[in-house]
Amino acid sequence: MHNKKSVQSSKINQNKAYSHDQSGLLAIHTAVLLFGLSGVIGKSLDLPAVIITFARVFISAIFLLLILISKKEPVRIRSLRNFSPFLAAGLIMAIHWTTFLQSIRTSTVAIGTLTFSTFPLFVTFLEPYFFREKLKAGAVLEALGMLLGVSILVPEFEIGNRMTQGILWGMAGSISYAFLSLINRRLAEKYSGEQISFYEQFIATILLLPSLWLIPFKLSGKDIAGLLILGIVCTGIGQALFITGLKNVRVQTAGIISGLESVYGILFAFLLLGEAPGIREICGGMIILGISTFTTLTSARKKPRIDKKTSSE
User: What is the Cα–Cα distance from 153 to 114, expressed in whole angstroms?
Assistant: First the structure.
C-alpha cells in the first residue's frame, strides 16, 4: 500500500514538472515571437530610431515597475556599488536598441535580425576577459564561421550601399548586446530579471530624454499605436514572459528558442511588409543560426539549470 502511494505521488510530481516545463516553453516561444515582431513594428513607424527607442524603454520601464510593485519586489538598488554596472547597462541598452532599429530601417528586417544573431561571436572573445575564463580554440572556429555568414550577407564592400550600412549598424547592435549580456550575468547574481530589466530601461529612458528636443519628429495616431504595442506588448510583456519561462526551462533551451527571433522577424516582415529574403540572406542566415544553435547545444553540457534570477535581453 505504501509503495502504491509512493508511485502515485511520484507520477503526480512528474506531471507537475512536465506541466511547468510546457508552460515555460510556451512562455519563451511567445516572448521570442513578440521580440521578432518588434523589428517589423519599428520599421513601419515614421519616426527616427532614437525616438522609437526612447518610447520603447519609457513605456516598458513603466510596465516593469508596475510588475515589481504588484509582486512586492524591492525597487531600490541594494548597494551604490551596483549603480555603475546598472548605468553602463542602461547606456549600452540605449545604444543596442537604437543601432538595431537603425539597421532594420536602413536595410531590411532580415539583415537587422541576422546580424544581431552574431552576438555570441563577440561574447566568445569578451567573456574570457570579463570572467577570467579560457578562450577555447573551438569557440574561435565558431566565431570565424559566423563571420563567414556575415560576409555572405554583404552585397558589396561599399559604405554607400544601404545593405552594407544596415549590416554595419546591425554589427554595432550585436557588439553592444554582447557587452549587455555580460553585464547582466554579473547583475543576475544579486537581482531578479524584472529588477535588472526595469533599471536598464529606466536609465536608458533618462539618457535618451534629450533626444526629444534635439531630434525633430512628428507623432501620428499610427505611430502612437505602434509605440504602445512595441513598448507594452513586444518589450514589457515579452520580457516578462521570457523571464517567467526561464524559471522552468534550461537557459540553453531558451537560447535555442531565441534563435527563432530572426525566423519570426523575417516571416513577419514578409507577411506585413512584403520583404522577401534573398539568397544571400538565406545562405548567410543558415550559417549564423546554425552555428549559434550548435554553440548553445555545446554549452548545455557544461552549465547547470538556470535559477529565477537570470535575466534576458
Answer: 9
Contacts of 2 (CB under 8 A, 6+ apart): none
Contact 226, 50 (CB under 8 A): no
CA–chain centroid gap for 50, Å, is 18
Which secondary structure element, helix H or strand E, spans residue 149, and what is its range? helix 137-153
CA distance 226 to 248: 32
Contact 294, 142 (CB under 8 A): yes
Amino acid present at 252:
Q
Q: What is the largest distance, in Å, between two alpha-carbon atoms of the chain?
A: 78
Cα-Cα-Cα-Cα dihedral sign, residues 159, 160, 166, 172: positive
How far apart, in whole angstroms, are the C-alpha atoms of residue 161 and residue 159?
A: 5
The DSSP secondary structure of 49-74, one letter per residue, reads HHHHHHHHHHHHHHHHHHHHHHTT--
Q: Are 27 and 255 in contact (CB under 8 A)?
A: no
Report the number of secondary-structure helices (H) and strands (E) in the chain. Answer: 14, 0
pLDDT, position 208: 95
pTM of the model: 0.79
Closest among 194, 233, 256 to 29, alpha carbons compared: 256
Whether residue 91 contacts residue 207, with contact meaning beta carbons closer than 8 Å, is answered with yes
Sorting pLDDT into bands at 50, 70 and 90, what band is 94? very high
- What is the amino acid identity at position 53? T
Query: Any residues with CB less than 8 A from the CB of 136 and at least 6 apart, and which?
Result: none
Q: What is the pLDDT of residue 313?
A: 45
Whole-angstrom Cα distance, residue 257 to residue 33?
A: 10
Place of cell 554549452: 299
Buried b (16+ CB within 10 A) or exposed e, 101-116: bbbbbbbbbbbbbbbb
